[in-house]
């Protein structure tokens, strides 16, 4: 009895604090729409303008508004906006009492993972092309602003009808920061070879690799390299693309404390996994998935390839 009383007092105070935060901040919570490693995302309605927004509240607490403004994600969003294919930050809210920081962003309908999950029939070529074009636009913009994303994956790409916007800038980095980069990087399935095989000697081209994996996934509705662990990730890449030649492996080895040896292997190729893929789209896919980052296509060149009418035999 005593315990249940204490428990209800605790629950009511939590709800009270929560309501205070939301009302003081001027937003009404509608429902939870996403959960990431670092945050929880809810749909909210502004009490000021009546519009709906996504509210991303960080799990990590901080001490001041200045710290909130200095968050990598906030800085990146401010620098990159406005852009048609980048999630717009509407307002930043810092609650002094609890140390929580919330990013009020424009609301999208769903992420690409949710969009293709459970789908049986392939997306029309026109749709794939349109989404890939917008994804490459967002990357071209980011890279030209001197930022790379480091976590391009279906869950971080948001859509609303035909519009695609890149979100989740929590892992991004300046292209001018000197490698090796030591902190957490991208989700395993979308991780480029240079991220897997060097001790942090990667740069903006890693985003193009990840975008290539997404390209395959929205065409085939299956992940391209679903590795179970880091070693299996490399093996899955080699199964399809084959092992790289010795000179490239040598380049990787120079920046890796642990040495590795891969018995030469010829890959099965991508076309077997996606038989109906038009040749120009397949060629672009290969250029985005070039093992050597120096040979990998830039976002800008990928865009002009996507601009060509024949990429998908459509206009
Ligand atoms: N603006 C938005 N509109 C609609 N849904 C959103 C929006 N922003 C985020 N979401 C949803 O919430 C999920 C988590 O958001 P986000 O990826 O930004 O958080 P995170 O904690 O940084 O994630 P991660 O685990 O990838 O690091 C997204 O996958 C998406 O489904
Ligand atoms: Mg995310």
UniProtKB/TrEMBL annotation:
Q: Which domain of life is it from?
A: Eukaryota
Q: Which InterPro entries match?
A: Kinase-like_dom_sf, MAPK, Prot_kinase_dom, Protein_kinase_ATP_BS, Ser/Thr_kinase_AS
The question of whether Manganese is a record keyword is answered with: no
Q: Where does ATP bind?
A: 56
Q: Which family does it belong to?
A: Belongs to the protein kinase superfamily.
Instruction: Tell me what gene encodes this.
Output: MOK
The record places domain Protein kinase at 27-312
Molecular function in Gene Ontology: ATP binding; protein serine/threonine kinase activity
According to the record, the segments passing through the membrane are: 6-27
For this entry, the protein name equals: Protein kinase domain-containing protein
Keyword Transmembrane helix part of the UniProt annotation: yes
What's the short name of a Pfam family annotated to this entry?
Pkinase
Cofactor(s) named in the record? Mg(2+)
